[in-house]
Write a structure and sequence with these properties.
InterPro entries: MFS, MFS_Cyanate_Porter, MFS_trans_sf. The protein is mainly α. It is built from 17 helices and four strands. The chain has one domain: Up-down Bundle (Growth Hormone, Chain: A). The strands form two sheets. A two-stranded antiparallel ribbon has the order 1-2. Strands 3-4 form a two-stranded antiparallel ribbon.
Length: 383
């Protein structure tokens, strides 16, 4: 899932040189999936109620594969501005990921109800790990030569997603063999019950998800350009982006141990602390961007795992978890689509990295405050 989008940041320089579009414009490619998630996340829950979770996930994997191919087809350009395949393929990827993002917490709640934090941590670790490999491999793959010509960014983006067709086939086999999702579709005219959109706990979870996602996509998009501006090579910048994500694997796996005992109440608010130190380090000692990025990655990985855990643990059953996941991710990604763009605009306007990094610090402060709210033992739709 994540490898389909994490390769864009390290390849931004190549994309700019190939398309002629400004760097700030192409950085919006990272925000296209976020907009799609904001718009389509609530629809995923509705579709799952009508056709079943497994069937919707099967379609999403097929769409994800198609979008990856479309994105790498030769684009049609108008006056130097890339249009058509590059942006359309990215949008298709966003729509496909919207369904998978929303429904996987419900799958965890349904199949592993007594082990939600542990299974969510494993899922998040795999998500971060595969995304990190995508970031680290795209640049070396793009420079591989055949007949004296480099493969380029198009082949690189397809190569890091080469396992997608395999994943789609495996899930289709699972769908045919599994009984989950059958007989769960809502009958026509059945009562839908109260909506999570009117629940304060759901809004708090959605807001928490939004601010933690904002930091991840800001750094995913801009660590590589920052590193290059500090004199690091393109491949080194890709490694910086990869390591930012790999440390998230460690912290996401460690989260279940923290969610025990009295500390559980305060964990959501404590997680941003390391990233606040990292942002300060990027401002005061930018030469250590690799290490600061890794420190921020610890917050990023654990915060995503925390958010997905909340979407399952703050619901009484997997149907409610699916609704909460759809609503929370819609709200969260609607917000998270803008910070990467704001970060780029601040960089363009000021000409440095201090102002945009200070903006990132404000996002982390907001996460602390929201963490105090979502850490309370409350459930969605409880009166």
């Amino acid at each position: 899932m994540r490898a389909t989008i994490t390769g864009i940041g390290p390849l931004l320089e190549q994309l700019t040189a190939d398309t002629g579009a400004p760097l700030a414009t192409l950085s919006a490619l990272t925000s296209v999936p976020l907009v799609a998630w904001a718009l389509c996340s609530p629809l995923a829950h509705t579709a799952a109620q009508r056709w079943g979770i497994n069937r919707v996930l099967t379609v999403s994997l097929v769409l994800l594969t198609a979008g990856t191919v479309i994105r790498s087809l030769p684009f049609v350009s108008a006056e130097g501005w890339p249009v058509a395949t590059l942006w359309i393929g990215t949008a298709v990827i966003g729509v496909a990921l919207a369904a998978a993002n929303v429904l996987l917490p419900a799958v965890v709640k349904q199949s592993f109800g007594t082990r939600v934090p542990l299974v969510t941590a494993i899922y998040t670790a795999l998500l971060a790990g595969c995304g990190a490999l995508g970031s680290g491999l795209v640049v070396p793959i793009s420079h591989v030569e055949t007949g004296g010509s480099p493969w380029g960014w198009r082949i690189a983006l397809i190569a890091v997603c080469a396992t997608l067709p395999v994943a789609a086939v495996l899930w289709m086999i699972h769908h045919r063999r599994s009984g989950h999702g059958r007989g769960e579709r809502r009958a026509a005219g059945a009562s839908r019950g109260p909506s999570v959109w009117g629940d304060s706990v759901a809004w708090q979870v959605g807001a928490y998800f939004g601010v933690q996602a904002s930091l991840f996509y800001v750094l995913l998009t801009w660590i590589a350009p920052m590193a290059i501006s500090y004199g690091r090579g393109e491949a080194q910048a890709g490694v910086d982006t990869m390591m930012f994500q790999l440390t998230g694997v460690i912290s996401s796996l460690a989260l279940p141990a923290a969610l025990r005992g009295r500390l559980e109440r305060w964990v959501p608010a404590l997680l941003p602390a390391l990233a606040l130190v990292a942002v300060a380090g990027m401002i005061l000692a930018p030469g250590g961007i690799l290490w600061w990025g890794m420190l921020a990655g610890l917050t990023s990985g654990s915060s995503l795992a925390m958010s997905l855990t909340l979407m399952a643990s703050r619901a009484r059953d997997h149907h409610t978890a699916s609704a909460l996941s759809g609503m929370g991710q819609s709200v969260g990604y609607a917000f998270a689509a803008f910070p990467p763009i704001v970060f780029g605009l601040l960089h363009t306007a000021v000409g440095g990295w201090v102002a945009p990094l200070a903006f990132s610090g404000l996002l982390l402060v907001a996460q602390v405050l929201l963490g105090l709210l979502v850490g309370r033992d409350r459930y969605v739709l409880d009166r």
